[in-house]
Specification:
Blueprint: H1 2-28, H2 37-51, H3 55-71, H4 75-88, H5 93-106, H6 109-122, H7 128-148, H8 151-164, H9 168-185, H10 190-203, H11 213-225, H12 229-238, H13 246-255, H14 260-270, H15 276-288, H16 292-305, H17 310-322, H18 326-339, H19 343-353, H20 358-365
Length: 366
């Protein structure tokens, strides 16, 4: 009886070891026995919507799947799945545009570009609806070219996007974007650029004022690039001030230097989710005006928005040091030094620690 028990225990142990070995082997091979259920659920939904040609639900599910894959380190899995489907049975050009968009977001630029180019082969270029899709796809390909550093291809595809665009406002802005970037990347004839601008302004004369905003923003930037700074400032002061969008305000901030404080106040009050950079810039203005309380408030918001802004932490340390809030100053200078070991930061840290810990102050000065 005792021997039977021993044999049974040995058998159970052997079974447990075999089970453990199988689990270990499958995990090492990436064959996990507990697959990501929600990921698989979304994949199944995606397949179903594609089969039933339900484009709206397909778009929505693909967006969720892409976001979920990025958040849960499943991007490679999704890229492999999409590539397989594109090579086998995903042939709908309208749905495949969204798939190419997803590949772009997932970081697979090569296959994204390949998919966009394949879509162009399927579309009827004589259809008016198709032309706007062709324009959009050429634009997306141009953005990939730009990320890859293929400037010639970028400009060629940007030009193609403008050629196929049917909407006059979009067409003008695409042409202006082309003129702007060709002026940045290559030596250009200013007179030729101005001639093209005059033609585009003529084409835009029948557009309502609210449809010209982006045109004026693009013109402001082009004039600045080709050295006509006074023209840039004229548009910013006399035209863009009639618009209140974030893009217009940011352009005014750039090209009306004497009104920067007022413009930054407008930007932050109307668009509180704006980049931390603008909070920082307004804080610097208040700091120069010796309004430390207001500067401190704005620097703090900038640091909350982007915790790695070591120069903002340094500014907060500086203000608190001047106000003799040494422990508060210490907190911020410690943050700054952790992120950037600048000699200036160590010097301020030494000044702060002199009032808290003299031995540490000496080390910091050293």
């Amino acid at each position: 009886m005792k021997n039977k028990k021993i044999k049974k225990i040995a058998k159970i142990k052997k079974y447990l070891w075999i089970s453990f070995a199988i689990i270990l082997l499958t995990s090492l091979l990436g064959l996990s026995q507990s697959p990501n259920k929600y990921y698989n659920y979304l994949i199944a939904k995606l397949e179903n919507y594609y089969t039933n040609n339900n484009t709206i639900e397909f778009y929505s599910t693909l967006e969720k799947l892409t976001e979920y894959s990025i958040q849960n380190s499943l991007t490679e899995n999704l890229i492999k799945f999409i590539r397989y489907k594109l090579s086998s049975n995903y042939k709908n050009p309208f749905i495949n545009e969204k798939i190419a968009d997803s590949l772009f977001v997932l970081g697979d630029l090569d296959y994204s570009k390949k998919t966009y180019n394949e879509i162009l082969r399927y579309i009827n270029i004589n259809s008016k609806i198709s032309k706007s899709i062709i324009s959009r796809i050429y634009y997306k390909i141009s953005q990939i070219n730009l990320l890859e550093g293929s400037i010639q291809d970028y400009l060629k595809n940007l030009s193609n996007s403008a050629i196929y665009e049917e909407d006059i406002e979009k067409k003008i802005n695409l042409k202006l974007e082309y003129l702007k970037d060709i002026s940045i990347y290559f030596q250009t004839n200013t007179n030729e650029i101005l001639k093209d601008i005059r033609e585009l302004l003529y084409d835009s004369q029948n557009l309502s004022l609210n449809r010209k905003e982006k045109i004026y923003i693009n013109l402001t930037e082009i004039y600045d690039i080709i050295g006509l700074n006074q023209e840039s400032q004229k548009i910013a002061k006399n035209i863009l001030t009639s618009y209140n969008s974030l893009d217009s305000l940011l352009t005014q901030y750039k090209y009306i230097p004497e009104n920067q404080k007022e413009i930054l106040e407008l930007i932050i009050n109307q668009y509180p989710n704006v980049d931390a950079y603008y909070y920082q810039k307004l804080a610097e203005i208040y700091y120069k005006e010796l309004n430390y309380q207001k500067a401190k408030e704005l620097f703090y918001v900038a640091l909350i928005k982007v915790s790695t802004k070591h120069e903002v932490a340094y500014n907060l340390a500086q203000i608190n040091y001047q106000e003799k809030n040494f422990y508060e100053a210490k907190k911020y200078i410690d943050i700054a030094i952790k992120q950037n070991e600048s000699p200036i930061y160590f010097e301020l840290a030494g000044d702060i620690y002199k009032n808290i810990d003299k031995k540490q102050a000496i080390k910091l000065y050293q």
